[in-house]
TrEMBL record:
Gene Ontology cellular-component terms listed: cytosolic large ribosomal subunit
GO biological process: translation
Subunit record text: Part of the 50S ribosomal subunit; part of the 5S rRNA/L5/L18/L25 subcomplex. Contacts the 5S rRNA. Binds to the 5S rRNA independently of L5 and L18.
Descriptive protein name: Large ribosomal subunit protein bL25
A GO MF term: 5S rRNA binding
Pfam families linked to this entry: Ribosomal_L25p, Ribosomal_TL5_C
Domain annotation Large ribosomal subunit protein bL25 L25: ranges: 6-90
Gene encoding the protein: rplY
Keyword NADP attached: no
Organism: Polaribacter filamentus
Role summary: This is one of the proteins that binds to the 5S RNA in the ribosome where it forms part of the central protuberance.
Amino acid sequence: MKSITIKGSKRESVGKVATKALRNAGMVPCVIYGGKSPIHFSAEEKAFKSLVYTPNVYTASLDVDGHKIAAILQDIQFHPVSEKILHVDFYQLFDDKEITMNIPVQLEGTSLGVLNGGSLRFTNRKLKVKALPANLPDFVTANISKLKIGNKLFVTSLSNDNYTFMHPDNTVVVQVRTSRNATLIEDEEAETETEEATEEAAAE
């Protein structure tokens, strides 16, 4: 999985006054959990742009006063009016410890059912995956080429040896449902087949 570097500095004080002063200076107070003890630091708000405002998922390489820590974004708080970032929580990653993340699903191919007028329902655009940090994928690929009208693609069809899906086996990722257009196409095909059969019978 791709990583984004964020540089910050340790916070000497974590009180309300110090936190307010940081925010007024365009800085975001942050905490890293998961290690021996929480690490409090601050970073420029603009440093979070590529990590937060994107549909993609990344790990974070946190450079706190020259000390680099691999982590994932755990929680983020926004101001209810201005939507400015108020606080960010990270969780530290360890090479030998599995982590759970929501990974985006990327569709591949063109559904046969959609070509026949069906309606594609993308039920789960992200899936919860558990894996070692080195095995976390940028996205999960779901091939929908063979899906006909009425077919469903379950999470079990996307199984991978490098990670585990944290969902029940009957979880539907994407499905093709019947639409009015599909019904019209099916009726037209049925009429054509009937006409062809009648013509063949008359010829005999």
